[in-house]
Amino acid sequence: MAFRDVTIKLISHVYWHRKVEFMLEEDKYPCWTIFAVEDGRFSYRVGEQKGEAEFGDFVICPPHTVFQRKTLEPLSFHFLQFVWISEPSFGDEAFWKGKLTINDTDRLSSNYRYLRQLPGWDEESTLHKQHMVNDFLRLVKIEQDRKDDPSTEVDLLMEKARRHMTEYAYASLSLFDLAVTLGLTPVQFTRKFRRAFGQTPSEFLNEMRLTRARHLLEGSTLTLDAIAEKCGFENGFYLSRVFTQKMGMAPSIYRSRHRV
Known about the structure:
Jelly Rolls, globular, alpha+beta, HTH_AraC-typ_CS, 23% strand
């Protein structure tokens, strides 16, 4: 099951702290919905799937599907709604439904902390929130692909690199200098990062930058050069080339189709 570089667009996020009970025992939502448990426990039923979820678990409900739920302990969770930028291919839909579990709880806790610290919906917060949720889904897929390899461990050095790249993604960031700082050659850095996260450092960086570029194309009238400067690209020409290669259309066409 191939994992796409760009997966979802986040449209809603609410954090609930120690919720004693749900207002409704069942509900339907018009878009894809995630209950990401940070603390506590609840029972659920999504279609024919049922069980219990706690820290480390996500329960994903497709649109217009009955979602039954009941708190078993005071529940702290992130309520997230999204749309797929590219719909899951046939056969993937069953995977993205019901409970999914992340074993790398250190990284999960870090992402939860960032989500809690970004309560607003200004442009910067929205971009970072979307990156966190995409990271959840990517991590689920990476762990699923590696479940038959129990020797695989979290690479702490690459986690350090990922955090640094996330913090400075939109600035002038040299992957060569980062590799040297980590005590690696560029080739070693690329191999280790791909082994840890399923993509190269440049792919990871471009994914973050293109996500921001898409939002600016949708919600602003900035020129392509101005957007490139805000997203960490050298200039508008280079942004256009990367954008067209990854998205399958020029930025101008994307803007005309997706303007808010």
